[in-house]
Amino acid sequence: MRTKKQELVSDELKPFVAKILKEAREKYNYSLEDLSKALNHQKNRQTLHKYETGTLNIPYDIFFEICRIFKIDNLVLNEIPMSKEEKEIFEKKMIKEYMSSIRPDKNLTTKTEKIINTYKNATYEATTSHKDLAIKITDDSMNPVYQKNDKVYFEKREDYQNGDDIVIAVKGNTLSVRRLYRYPKGIILQALNPKYPTLNINIVSNEMILGKVTAIYREVK
Asked: What pTM value is reported for the model?
């Protein structure tokens, strides 16, 4: 079955990726046949040669699997010049294919994958043992408790209580934090910053709520 175009490294990134692949393979003294074996023969040596020479676009999943084999870290990958749009695609694929390889259970759940692909400020934190989803706060709606650019970790719960800080899609494809209050016919989503409106939602299910805030990470400058 032919790989979809969106699953392949773009023509613009192809020469940079090809260089990384060849240098890593030679550093570890792997032949193309050795690499094919390490990939469980998902790709043969002829195809791997085409990836290295830039004559064929490599699928993201194969690229990040090779990154794992050769221990290619983020510092190397971050040196690849790319547009903002390409970087977003690249990071999403890296989250799914590369970072998941060092997660304790080695797999993203379907629900987790859907969240990170749907909401532009959601990320997957593979280096944490029990909190794997986080969002970046994009506004000041929850000041002073949560500040813009804070990273907020959250976990799905069976139920939520009054006063819980929850993660929910307030608008569009961006997730936000709001303080939850229940009443008989729905819920109230409170923004702590008074310049933002308090939302009253009549029809609600727990599926609308992505999770309860469990931790905050803030860079101190």
From this structure: 0.49
